[in-house]
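Lab notebook, bench 4. Still working through the backlog of constructs that have no structural model yet. Next entry is a single chain of 106 residues. Request: give me the structure tokens for it.
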Amino acid sequence: MEQLSRRRGEPPPYAERVLDLVERIPPGRVMSYGDVAEYLGEGGPRQVGRVMSTWGGAVPWWRVIRADGSAAPGLEAECLARWREEGTPLRGTRADMRRARWDGGV
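Model written out:
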């Protein structure tokens, strides 16, 4: 897999694939970092997290979360507000992964 450490310029091809998928997650639905990697058939949760932290600001980043339904540290309040706005199924302050998880289908 190509190097993901560069921060300037265009994202590498793997990052583009991650970002393209994230843009397709419907409002009110979520995928875990691992779900994204599994769907793409490459990388893993950490690589997806790296892409999101480096280049994810222009896509609906709040729709990519931890497998337990929680947001990335420091982003909890903003994620919760966006989830509520979109009608994402919740369990307390976490996304209800059983009901909110998107499998990449239509």
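Notes after review: The CA atoms of residues 7 and 54 lie 7 Å apart. The first strand starts at residue 31 and ends at 32. Flag for follow-up if needed.
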